[in-house]
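Form 12-C: Joint structure prediction
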Amino acid sequence: MKEKGWEEIPIGGVIDKAGSAAEYKTGDWRTFKPVRDEEKCTHCLLCWIYCPDSSILVKDRKMVGFDYDHCKGDGICAAVCPVKCIKMERE
Amino acid sequence: MSKVIALMGDQAAAEAMRQIEPDVLAAYPITPQTEIVMTFAQFVADGLVQTEMIPVESEHSAMSACVGAAASGARTMTATSANGLALMWEIVYIAASTRLPIVMPVVNRALSAPINIHCDHSDSMGARDSGWLQIYCENNQEVYENIIMAVKIAEHKDILLPVMVCQDGFITSHAVEGVKVYNDKQVKDFIGEYKIRHSLLDVDNPVTYGPLDLQDYYFEHKRQQSEAIKNSLKAIPEVFAEFKKHFGVEYDFIETYRLDDADVAMVALSSTAGTTKVVVNELRAQGKKAGLLKPRFFRPFPKEKIVQALSGLKAVAILDRSESFSNQGGPLFTEIRSALFDESKKPLTVNYIYGLGGRDINTEQIKSVFVDLEKIVKEKRVIESINYLGVRG
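Section 2 - Result
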């Protein structure tokens, strides 16, 4: 995202549209990234419940991957996974 | 259309606030501001205003409540003094940075310690870098009129900054003077309606106030604040012109008194300017070319006006009712001297720190400063730049 100049942004630090946090890519904060063993995954979705950044991608009630644009690599998913199918790998 | 009534400076402030009738007033009483809050609370109790008055538990809460109210789009006011302003400190900066047009009468009082309830400008001068505009009032009439004007200045679309309207604790806040009060409708017509651009309560157009702002955008927001201060130098004269149109009274960033043909002059804020006028008249009667410059605004700092008024003089004494402990003089002195620095033609400047903790400043002391100025002119040099007027040695 191209950063804007001082004349282009709302004054007072106001963010004038809702939901814009999604545009802020926090994925580059990550040191370790979660990697899933699809064979082992039981799709219990505990990772989806616990992830504080809504970075567990779910389709048709199945865990289908990670939103690496926003995943900060906190490792919570790996810690709560009951079948240990998520590993944290160094970027 | 108007009437003259006897009011203390604090009551003059409260009367202006009654006529403005802000949507929200959040305040905590502190000497010598107490009578503002007390008088206004009576107006609320008597049903004379519809203002939502929030009697908070501290000044930190007062300014916090003001920030919330102002972000929702309410016309918002508070008032404070000294230690109260100090306790607000964190939120004082947030109010300005968030660009909320809050108006706050400040009744100038010394900061502790040792504890002191009397006038000096150490409280508001400490807030000079907070991003607020600051108006200093000589007398109760100016208190009344400046507060009314401050609303319009704060809310001006090219400014959107909070404003402190400062007056001297006890000296004017508790002195009764005749104040020409306009009728309520005139004041309401002048200030008009206020509509915020982004209201926190507008659920159809949701916005975020006070987000995290790191290395990538904080600097841009500060740059906007600098621009707002610069813009205010152009926008405030529009408010002066409108005030003149409505009330027939002329205001400017500075007031000059017998300065046009003067050789020497004094610069002083607030009530001391009034005392100086008496001395200037006495000196003029003796044929001495003395004058006075009274800055009404310290923020924005009206550099061009001040330079224009002073550059032709031979020597100028700048009086500061606060000590900045910089060893370079008080805040008024350092800024005026800096403003004059690039001028090829400029007066010799000398600083007097005076009146701390409410120490009396009388005509004899002011006369002694003019005697010093004569000596400076004669010798064409300043021997001691920073002086302390009225302290025992």
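Section 3 - Comments
The longest strand of chain A covers residues 32-36. The first helix of chain A runs from residue 46 to 50.
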